[in-house]
Amino acid sequence: MKGRTIGRHFRESFKSLGRNGWMTFASFSAVTVTLILVGVFSVIMMNLNHIADDLENDVEIRVLIEIIEEEGQKNAAEEQLLAQVQNMPDVASVAYSTKEQELEDLIKDFGEELSLYEQSNPLHNVLYVKAINPQQTAKVAEEIEKLDYTYEVLYGKGKVENLFSFLNISRNIGFILIIGLLFTAMFLISNTIRITIFARREEIEIMKLVGATNSFVRIPFVLEGIWIGLLGSIIPVIVVSITYYKLYDILAPRLRGNMLELLPVTPLLYQVSVLVIGIGLIIGMWGSFMSVRKFLKV
Amino acid sequence: MIEMKKVTKKYPNGVVAMNGISTKIKQGEFVYVVGPSGAGKSTFIKLMYREEKATSGEVMVNGINLTTLKSARVPHLRRQLGVVFQDFKLLPRLTVYENVAYAMEVIEEEPKKIRERVMEVLDLVGLKHKVRMLPTELSGGEQQRVAIARSIVNKPGVLIADEPTGNLDPETSWEIMDLFEEINRNGTTVVMATHNRDIVNTVRKRVIAIEGGLIVRDEYGGDYGYEG
What we know:
heterodimer, A: 298 residues, alpha+beta, Alpha-Beta Plaits, 2 domains, 4 strands, 72% helix, B: 228 residues, alpha/beta, Rossmann fold, 6-stranded mixed β-sheet, 4-stranded antiparallel β-sheet
């Protein structure tokens, strides 16, 4: 194919958008509406996922260390335990906290009257352990329990399992919804494009009859599909961006009070914009490619 | 040159449209194809530009064997032919100029040559002043003249016409016929399926009559031969 023919295809595809005014508008609207849905839903799902991850990552294991009076023996025991826990393959991090720090935290949370215990502190030194995969917490806790010098291993047994299964279910539902929405978007957009091309099937037939090759007929249509896909993603990108930008300002401070973090505006909006534009482009291209193919056999 | 050898055509629904036809049309000839409706005229014409493919036998056009021609090569065959239809088959959203130019863009001709040649053939068919109009703004006769301009713009050796005057009034039909004769005088083979007995009886040429999928008459200077 010669360079000027490629240029001709580009010019044709642009002209064709104008010539087929209403059909272009119909396809453009279908793309816009579906991509707004895709955009909004992606933002919601990504945030829910992020919150779920945060909740999971907050899960940690408290290992109360056996109380040993003799100082040297105690240090050796704690060092041994710490090393053993750190060497576990599923453990991400271990933090050590003395019983004095523990008491201070309690006083902070529950009030000065607890400072009475500063004279004879009944608390244990503690290891705070996080699993690499939070869902492995129970297993890690079990393994730590088997080690020497542990007094008690706590991780919210029961509650944590409930939280995890709740998060897993909501993730799966979100995933299914996203897939379903993507399919609906594909179907709706490619169907609209198919209808507009169906209205022009006679044109395709005529082009073939005067000796146009399949690709000569197809390329302007595919380019037209790409333009419609790109044009159709402009409004969704703008709407989703502005809405999230505003909502983030309103919601983020309130949610932070409840220990929930929203995803920051960047890079989230870049990611969602790329997603929306990419889907528009691919569906526009694919939709016209497939629809033209049907009418090329003349 | 066009040559058919024992050509049969059976459609998937069982209709046998060609029943073993053999004929030769030499370069520069003018041939009418006549016969009652449903006799196989259209199939005969469609076999020549590979809209239909023969079930058996051999069709040769300009030295190309259409029975073995691969689908991907069909566009190249069509560029060597001009085809004119009863319903004109113009691209409705393109102007007169663009419709004619399309046939040259397809062969990736230089833009300068396209401009010159398109204006030349539009002048020939008498529509130079309507280049910017859309087909819907033209009369039937004018639309057919655009279609003819498109069919000859690449200087084909063969012009194939399927009932080109079928949708036109008598006077306009004569204008179109004049154009075909002029094209033929310049050396182009013209094969024209028609129901127009006035034209066939007045402008005497070779007549191939088809009935029941067979050639029943092949006569130089023959008449139309059917009532009505």
